[in-house]
From TrEMBL:
Gene3D superfamilies the record matches: NAD(P)-binding Rossmann-like Domain
Stretches assigned to the NAD(P)-binding domain: 3-127
Name of this protein: Nucleotide-diphosphate-sugar epimerase
Length: 248
């Protein structure tokens, strides 16, 4: 598994090992499979030798994902890996956001790899919104993007879904996975403020550009696939020990 020490990779590794599967964790610093996917090299070949399935979770908003995927796919071909599972994001083909374009390009590399493959798209994790709100709430006024909603999902639930896919046969592009609720940014932000005991006035700020229009149009949402169970409010309560249920 690439990115096995990350936000998604860690619970996925734990789930697979708990189910009795041998898991190799590939990351820049995880021994004995410390691998730089962007650089490639002999360490990558050794890491994937004898592997049945690769789950590719490693990613970086700073760039290099396409090269990393190309190196991983080449090594997987050489090793005769039978199944490559990739985690992507809902809306990568609908929202012209730079990071989303990269994820879509990696999807295409996976699909054209010649390997058996599975791609799962999920909505944003609860923790990503918390990190965003931690930044936005630092000033005395909290600015949020006007007209944008989100559909956060629990990372543990995505890990469980990926684990099931990893032990199954290659399935191609599977159904998207979204959180249980579509909520506006003010609703989500107020829930965060209540849960953390902060007081900030909210100001809706209109932004510009094609990516913003895509988010406003809900291209990153999948309300018809609201299969997640844990709500953002429940996540906040578990993390901060306070009621954070969004109020409409």
């Amino acid at each position: 598994m690439t990115g096995g020490t990350g936000v998604l990779g860690r619970p996925l590794t734990e789930r697979l090992r708990a189910d009795g599967h041998e898991v190799r964790v590939l990351s820049r610093h995880a021994q004995p499979y410390a691998v730089d996917l962007v650089a490639g090299g002999s360490g990558l070949d050794a890491a994937v030798a004898g592997v049945d399935t690769i789950v590719h979770c490693a990613t970086s908003p700073r760039g290099g994902d396409e090269q990393a995927a190309a190196n991983l796919i080449a090594a997987a071909r050489r090793a005769g890996v039978g199944h490559l599972v990739y985690i992507s994001i809902v809306g990568v083909d609908r929202v012209p956001f730079g990071y989303y374009r990269t994820k879509l390009a990696v999807e295409r590399l996976v699909e054209e790899s010649g390997l058996g493959w599975t791609v799962l798209r999920a909505t944003q994790f609860h923790d990503l919104l918390v990190m965003l709100f931690q930044i936005l709430s630092k000033p005395p006024v909290m600015l949020v993007p006007a007209g944008v909603s989100d559909q956060p999902v629990a990372v543990a639930e995505v890990a469980d879904r990926l684990a099931d896919l990893a032990v199954g046969a290659p399935a191609g592009r599977v159904d998207d996975m979204g959180g249980p609720e579509v909520l506006t940014f003010p609703e989500l932000a107020r829930a965060y403020l209540r849960a953390t005991g902060r007081r900030r006035p909210l100001v809706n700020v209109p932004l510009f550009g094609k990516a913003y229009r895509g988010f406003r149009a809900g291209g990153h949402l999948t309300p018809e696939r609201a299969v997640g169970k844990a709500t953002f409010g429940e996540h906040l309560a578990a993390r901060f020990g306070a009621a954070g249920s969004p109020r409409r």
